[in-house]
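Inputs:
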Amino acid sequence: MEFIYYFGDVFAPISFLLLLVGTIGGLILGATPGLSPTMAVALLIPFTFHLEAVQGLILLGAAYTSTVAGGAVSAILLKIPGAPANIATTLDGHTMAKKGEGARALQLSFLASAVGGIFGVLLLIFLTPLLAKWALAFGPSHLFWLAILGVTIIGSLDSASVVKGLLSGCIGLWLATIGFDDIMGAQRFIFHPSLGGGINIIAALIGLFAIPQVLTMFAKGRRNDNIEVIEVKKHAIGDAVRELFSRKRAMAIGTSVGSIIGLIPGVGGQIAGLVAYDQTKKFSSEREKFGTGHSEGVIAAESANNAMVGPSLVPLLTLSIPGSPTAAVLLGGLLIHGIFPGTDLFDNHPDVAWTFINSMLIGQVLMCLFGLYVAGLAAKVAQVPQCVMAAVVLGLSVFGAYSVQSSMGDVYVMASLGVMMFFLERFGFSAAPLVLGLILGPIAEANFIQGSMIANATDGMGTYFLGGALNLVLIAIVIASIAYSVVMELRQNRAQNAEVTA
Amino acid sequence: MSRAQHIVPSGIVFAVGCWIAWVSFTQQPAEAFLFPRLISAAFVALAGWTFVKALLGWSKVGSGVSRTMALNLAPGLIVSLIYVFWLAKALGFYTATTLAFFVLLSLYDPAPHNEAKTWIKRAIITACFIAVMYGVFGLLLKVYTPREILF
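Outputs:
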């Protein structure tokens, strides 16, 4: 119950102001199609560099929570999911809006998001210290395998092709080795002076997540999207609250599915929303109404995608394995302040850890309160032409990358990685495993070197890295995640071939 | 997407992988390249497999770059690269950003170019954006950006 002790810190004037800014800004950014939660959080990181660690994390946490919920606004009013996590919301939410029930759909969506989100953060509060204590038993070989597990699990589950996902992870791990070696001081892969200090993680995050989105908007050309926003008529909030509690089954399925999926690294909100929607439909007595503007569909999808936010941070805060690309960006936010997740975070920086987690709890309530009022404004922002959005994101990326170390080298690195990622994505590679490789690379290398020193003095490399129960369990999970993805990919290819033949 | 569109990028990635492996296994001190050797071995194996798949026509993932897409992208990409790699330092951040922002808006805004109202709107949006950037980075965060001409 240590978290209660730090509750008051969230209400410190600057912290609370940042929580408000993050929540409202996140709702608006989340509602804007083309701006993913990961990109929104990546663009905010340079601002956190100028803040104290806890204040920076409050801003990032609030933005993460509310961008996921804000995506429902454009899903309901524009039929464009603000983020992949809101795809399932579109199915019934937009139909409700077309029937003139847009306000009811929005109210239910924000209320369900808050309930799911609060449950998810409570899970984070109670699971994290237990796992963090367990992480104490981890030696260098286990930490090395954990870092590799983080890269392979996202590489295999988050990519359309397992091989290209793992290759993206390898590219990230290699990029992490650029610069001077920590132990011998040797130069590695420095083919330009701006790479002398290695690749700056913030510049890389901005480049890998923001620049491909900018170029994707350019690639659409001079297009007039003519997005039509459905007008929102008034609806009593009390009725929405009563309806939410009368749909307990949808709420319970959405929240539990979201929480469980959130705990699995690499799976993400999109799957959480779709699985919750599907399961609620299966167990509903009104399953024929799904897809025709049924409130249970909105409640299940939105409670699930927000319930996964808290649990997705459990592997990050305890074992340094980000559960999602956005969690990987948050890890970058922690590392720039010299804070390492795991026991270090809870033993040496409990104020940072608990104030951040508590702020996410309060952020859920604020997101619900403001979401209902900001929805109209957010839908208008979603109509901003793509060309303006692309130019704004490009300008913000350049200033953001420069502001961290006042270095033009970081701007060049940001732009080069961004252009490279845009083209790699067109050929089936993905940014998430590459970022994970870049972030977890130094952790993997430090533990590999430390482990090899211990191994050379004791049983040898093979026994040290491949022996022991915990090592074997971690290796088995690495192999299982890759094997599962290979089987799924082969099945998908076979189904596609069968379709083509038919 | 044509087979060539799979072969060229996977060939480039494979070549980069081979170069990393060559550097990792030939440079000294060996201890500093222990981890890069491990990574490069996996890199070459995966990149090699991707390249072979592309050569045999088994690659199916990815949407590639169509001609229309390339034509749409080219002006924006060129302006962005000139802005980042040359203008930002040569003219100063704020002047370069103003120019790049206005040019990008003019290139991609679907509104007709022959109306004065459109140009005024673009100029106002650009001015507002630069004012916000100056307020946030120049005044609030006190980031000292390169300033060469004017601002």
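Remarks. Residues 87-134 of chain A form the longest helix (48 residues). The longest strand of chain A covers residues 179-180.
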